[in-house]
């Protein structure tokens, strides 16, 4: 929240340095963003550690961990096939990191003074790097497995000869748009949800400060914000799933072509 | 929008920390812990599949044993029936033989008895003839005074008696 009671919905996305750090003139300051990424890392590690008992008959935590890994494994197997096995760690890392980072951003920690959660995935500097990483893996895998034959991806089977240049151009554009759509989808979904919640939150606060009509607006906004929060919980999971699923599908293109 | 305004100042830091965190997740968790969890799952599935196969084969073996047992039982039952049949026939034959022996003996006795009766009857008849001839001769002698020879009398009586 900005000073003097004025509520700035964008303020929540500000990256604030906690410990300035520079290596060879490159700024790698430890920021709140970095801190929340480390929290995500710790949570993921803690969760996975609960599944490391490796019992024959799993306990409930092991069951939960195996459910998550089985979910990713299944998704990769269905979309890529048996060859996708070696990409499971990457897809799993993507999914778990995005999911946990998204969820952390929804924690209502702002009720504790001096603390407020930061959504790392609402920065395209984060989602963009993840998307570029996925795209780069797709390119590397595609060219490594198929060489120049990888370009046949741009010409779907059964395309009439006259249509080939046009189709290839369209396919090429749609292929090149992939990293942007990956990065922007997640970033926009996160930022939009958080702005919406912040705006309705400010309606509640300002409404309660301003007379009978304000109370009505405030209560309505409060009811609405409950719905938005529930929706956001859904969006958080869906976006993580979509990111992982699309990466899997793109990998499938690279591995099996068409 | 801080994402854009701050971008030049924070990008390297964001990139660095993301790579650190994501690297740890990928190498430490994704490639370190995940395969172990997956192998546990695979091991369990393998174990379950093996156990199921084992149970299946055990069941097949049990069915086979039961089949063999049933066959043996059937055989034994057939054998028992055969033996019982044989014994029954044997005893029937013995009884029959005994009955036949007894019947033979009885028949023999009856025959001898009949023989005796016939002899007695014959003897009695001869006696009667003799007595009748004697009586006839005497009656003739008393009534007519004619002395009939005993052979004649006997002849006449015999003729009269046997018609």
Automatic annotation (TrEMBL), chain A:
A GO-annotated cellular component: proton-transporting ATP synthase complex
Membrane-spanning parts: 34-52, 87-112, 124-144, 151-176, 182-205, 217-242
Swiss-Prot/TrEMBL keywords: ATP synthesis, Cell membrane, CF(0), Hydrogen ion transport, Hydrolase, Ion transport, Membrane, Transmembrane, Transmembrane helix, Transport
InterPro entries the UniProt entry points to: ATP_synth_F0_asu, ATP_synth_F0_asu_bact/mt, F0_ATP_A_sf
Compartments, as annotated in UniProt: Cell membrane; Membrane
An MF annotation (GO) of this entry: proton-transporting ATP synthase activity, rotational mechanism
Entry keyword annotation includes RNA-binding: no
UniProt topology in membrane: Multi-pass membrane protein
Claim: Acetylation is one of the keywords in the record: no
Pfam families: ATP-synt_A (PF00119)
Biological role: Key component of the proton channel; it plays a direct role in the translocation of protons across the membrane.
Family: Belongs to the ATPase A chain family.
HAMAP family given in the database record: ATP_synth_a_bact (MF_01393)
PANTHER family: ATP SYNTHASE SUBUNIT A
NCBIfam families (UniProt xref): ATP_synt_6_or_A, PRK05815.2-4
UniProt name for this protein: ATP synthase subunit a
Classification of source organism: Bacteria, Pseudomonadati, Pseudomonadota, Alphaproteobacteria, Sphingomonadales
């Amino acid at each position: 929240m900005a000073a003097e009671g004025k509520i700035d919905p964008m303020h929540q996305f500000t990256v604030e340095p906690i410990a300035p750090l520079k290596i060879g003139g490159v700024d790698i300051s430890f920021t709140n963003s970095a801190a929340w990424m480390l929290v995500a890392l710790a949570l993921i590690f803690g969760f996975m550690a609960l599944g490391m008992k490796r019992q024959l008959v799993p306990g409930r935590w092991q069951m939960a961990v195996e459910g998550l890994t089985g979910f990713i494994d299944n998704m990769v197997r269905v979309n890529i096939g048996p060859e996708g096995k070696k990409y499971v760690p990457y897809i799993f890392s993507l999914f778990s990191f995005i999911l946990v980072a998204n969820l952390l951003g929804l924690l209502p920690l702002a009720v504790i003074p001096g603390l407020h959660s930061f959504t790392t995935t609402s920065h395209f500097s984060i989602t963009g790097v993840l998307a570029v990483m996925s795209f780069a893996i797709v390119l590397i895998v595609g060219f490594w497995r198929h060489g120049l034959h990888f370009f046949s991806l741009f010409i779907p089977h059964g395309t009439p000869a006259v249509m080939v240049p046009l189709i290839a151009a369209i396919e090429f554009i749609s292929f090149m748009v992939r990293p942007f759509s990956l990065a922007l989808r997640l970033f926009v979904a996160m930022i939009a949800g958080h702005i919406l919640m912040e705006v309705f939150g400010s309606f509640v606060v300002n409404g309660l400060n301003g007379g009978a009509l304000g109370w009505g607006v405030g209560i309505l906004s409060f009811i609405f914000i409950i719905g938005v929060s529930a929706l956001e919980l859904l969006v958080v999971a869906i976006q993580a799933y979509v990111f992982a699923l699309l990466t899997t599908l793109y990998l499938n293109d690279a591995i099996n072509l068409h | 929008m801080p994402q854009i305004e701050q971008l030049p100042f924070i990008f390297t830091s964001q990139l660095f920390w993301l790579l650190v965190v994501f690297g740890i997740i990928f190498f430490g968790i994704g490639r370190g812990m995940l395969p172990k969890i997956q192998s546990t799952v695979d091991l369990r599935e393998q174990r379950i599949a093996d156990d199921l196969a084992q149970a299946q084969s055990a069941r097949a073996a049990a069915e086979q044993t039961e089949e063999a047992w049933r066959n043996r039982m059937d055989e034994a039952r057939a054998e028992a029936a055969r033996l019982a049949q044989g014994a029954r026939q044997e005893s029937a034959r013995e009884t029959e033989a005994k009955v036949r022996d007894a019947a033979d003996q009885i028949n023999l006795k009856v025959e001898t008895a009949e023989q005796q009766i016939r002899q007695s009857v014959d003897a009695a008849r001869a006696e009667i003839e003799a007595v009748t001839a004697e009586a006839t001769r005497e009656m003739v002698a008393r009534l007519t005074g004619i002395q009939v020879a005993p052979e004649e009398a006997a002849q006449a009586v015999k003729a009269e008696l046997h018609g």
